[in-house]
Write a structure and sequence with these properties.
Radius of gyration: 18 Å
Shape: globular
Order of helices and strands: HEEEHHEHEHEEHH
Distance between the termini: 66 Å
Length: 225
């Protein structure tokens, strides 16, 4: 009987597979949903920040336990959430070791950023797409993000550390990050499970998320015409 591969060899195989697949996946068109986008009076934001994507929610319309995260930031209007590999996301400097380690199954974190201006203004140098949703969809999105957070024995979100800039904080996530479940996979899955016509299958890169978000935004504009 052939011996099974060692854990170290399996890890090397995962890294090699990801490095081979990455350029290919970046060129794969984003899956397209033929479901008509549901529009409502509430808005959310999908933000592309280089290789990374975030979800932005308006504080005034966020209900449930996720709303508790705003209490440390009086006067904020928006909360932006981004998922990532914990050590990589929280590292002050990133080298080859952190990059390769991030591809292996590991703990994750969510960076929450408190904003006083809309994401379209706060991230003016980045791509921010505005999507209209129903209040029910927004409530579901808030619930899904809350469920992605690790909680303390008292039921509060497990705060890890202050974020890299004022108004940001790292929270522990209860999900596993790896080469095939990235920050962008998480964004696409949360949006899909929240009721938006986004397909998370095969999504690894920011461009795959942003193309789908842009298509939905364009379809919503056409519906209004």
């Amino acid at each position: 009987m052939k011996a099974s591969a060692s854990p170290a060899r399996r890890r090397r195989s995962v890294v090699l597979l990801w490095l081979i697949a990455a350029p290919l996946c970046g060129c794969v068109p984003a899956p397209q949903s033929h479901a008509p986008p549901i529009t409502g009076d509430a808005v959310i934001y999908v933000i592309g920040r280089g290789w990374h994507t975030d979800i932005g929610l308006p504080v005034e319309e966020v209900t449930g336990p996720l709303a508790d995260l705003e209490h440390d930031y009086p006067g904020i209007r928006f909360m932006v959430f981004g998922f990532g590999e914990r050590n990589y996301l929280m590292a002050r400097s990133v080298g080859p070791v952190e990059m390769f380690t991030a591809l292996l199954p590991s703990k994750s974190a969510i960076l929450m950023t408190a904003l006083r201006a809309p994401p379209t203004e706060a991230f003016a140098d980045e791509q921010a797409v505005t999507l209209r949703v129903t209040q029910q969809q927004l409530d579901r999105l808030a619930e899904l993000i809350w469920r992605s957070l690790e909680r303390t024995a008292g039921g509060a979100a497990h705060r890890l550390a202050d974020g890299p800039y004022p108004g940001s904080v790292f929270y522990a996530s209860n999900e596993t990050y790896d080469a095939f479940y990235t920050c962008n996979t998480w964004t696409a899955r949360v949006l899909r499970d929240g009721g938006l016509p986004i397909d998370p299958r095969g999504v690894l890169f920011a461009g795959q998320v942003m193309r789908q978000a842009t298509q939905i935004a364009a379809a919503q504009v056409r519906q209004d015409q």
